Amino acid sequence: MERPQIAILGAGIFVRTEYIPRLSEISDLFILKAIWSRTEESARGAVDIAKKFFPNVECKWGDAGLDEITKDSSIAAVIVALAAQIQVDLSLKLLKAGKHVLQEKPAAASIDEVETALSSYNSLSTSLPCRPIWAVAENFRFEPALVEGAKFMADIGDMVNFQIIVEVPMNSSNPYFSTSWRHNFAGGYILDMGVHFVASLRLLAGCEVTAVSATTSHVDTSLPPPDNMSSVIQLENGCSGVLVTVVSAKTYQTFWRIVGLKGTLQIDVENREGKYGYLITLSTPERQTKSPFYPFSGVTEELKTFLGDVSRAILKKDDSFQAEPRISFLEGARDFAVLDAMLESGKKKGALVQVKKF
Ligand SMILES: *[C@@H]1O[C@H](CO)[C@@H](O)[C@H](O)[C@H]1NC(C)=O
Ligand SMILES: *[C@@H]1O[C@H](CO)[C@@H](O)[C@H](O)[C@H]1NC(C)=O
C-alpha cells in the first residue's frame, strides 16, 4: 500500500507534545508533508520539533499556506487540531476539497453547528465521487483498557448503577490552562474534557444516553464556567448513574465504577513509574481479578486506525469503503450532545433534559 501524504493544521500543545511524538512512532504508515498554523512563528515552533523525525516536513502559515494545503492534490488527509470554535468550518473546507480529515474533539462548538456540519457532510456524497472520511479524535474509544473493560461488562451482568468520577486541578501549572480559546468556549473545560468520559461510558454500557439532570457551579473564577458538575445520567438500557467532574480540584483522581447484578467493574487511572495508564478490577462474590497495567495508548491506536482507513479509502476510490465507526464524526457528535444536555440542565437548576439524537 502506498503511504498517504498528510498535513497537520495547528501547532499548539497537543500537536507538539502528543501528535508529533505519537506520529513519529508509526512513521512507516504515512508521509508528513506540512504543518500549518495561523502565524509563521507558531508553525515554525512545531516544525522544528517535527524535523527530528520528519526531516522533509514543510512549514506553512496564514491564508496563503492554508490555500496551498487545500489545493495540494498530493495531500490525502489532514489532522485538524485548532481552537474548537473554528475546527468545523476548516474541516468542511478540507472535506469539500476531497481530503480525509481527523479533527480534534470536541466535534463542534454548539448543537446548531453539529446539525449543519452533519448535513453539509452528508450532502458531499452528491458532489464528490466518494465522500472523504471525517473522523473526530477523542481517543478513549481506542484505549485498550476501555475496550477490554467493555468486554468485562458481560461478567458483571445487567448494569445496576455506575459512577464516573473525574477530579482535575486545572490551574496555571497545567499547560492547557493558558490556551485562550478554552477560556472563551461555552462549557469550558467541563465540555472539553467531558466528551472523553461520555465516550467511555457509551463504549462500556454499549448503549446511548437518553436524558440527563445536572447541577453545575463556578468555584474557581480563573477558570471558565462551569468548573464543577454532578450529573445524573439515564441510559437507554434503563440504568442510571452519575458523572462527577471537578476541574477546580486540588488533586487528580479518575475512575469508573460499574455495579452489575453479578459483580462490580472498576477502572482506575494510575501513574506507574511516571507513566499514566489504567488498571481494571473485576470483583464478584467469589474473587477479585486485576488486569495488567495498560499505559495510555489511545492516541496512537486512533492514529493507526485513521491512517489505515485513509490508505484503504485511497485504494477503493468509491463509496464501498467503510471507515471504522469509532472515529466517525457522528460518534463525536453524540458525545457532544450529551454534554450539551448536561450544561443546559445545569442552567435550568437540574431539570431533566432529553439528549438530542444523532
Ligand atoms: C459543586 O457541585 C455540587 C453538585 O453539582 C454542589 O452541590 C456543590 O455545592 C458545588 N460546590 C461549589 C463550591 O459550588
Ligand atoms: C496546581 O495543582 C497542582 C496539584 O494540586 C499543584 O501541585 C500545583 O502546585 C498547582 N499550581 C498552582 C500554580 O497552584
Provide a descriptive summary of the structure in words.
The chain is α/β, with parallel strands linked by helices. It folds into two domains: 5-139 and 299-327, NAD(P)-binding Rossmann-like Domain (Rossmann fold, 3-Layer(aba) Sandwich); 140-296 and 336-354, Dihydrodipicolinate Reductase, domain 2, CATH 3.30.360. It has ten helices and 16 strands. A hairpin with a 3-residue loop joins strand 11 and strand 12 (264-272). The longest helix is centred in the last third of the chain and has 19 residues, at 298-316. The protein is globular. The model has no long low-confidence stretch (mean pLDDT 96). The structure holds 2-acetamido-2-deoxy-beta-D-glucopyranose (NAG) (2 copies). Residues 215, 217, 219, 228-230 line the site of one 2-acetamido-2-deoxy-beta-D-glucopyranose. It comes from Handroanthus impetiginosus. Keywords: Oxidoreductase. It holds the Pfam family GFO_IDH_MocA.
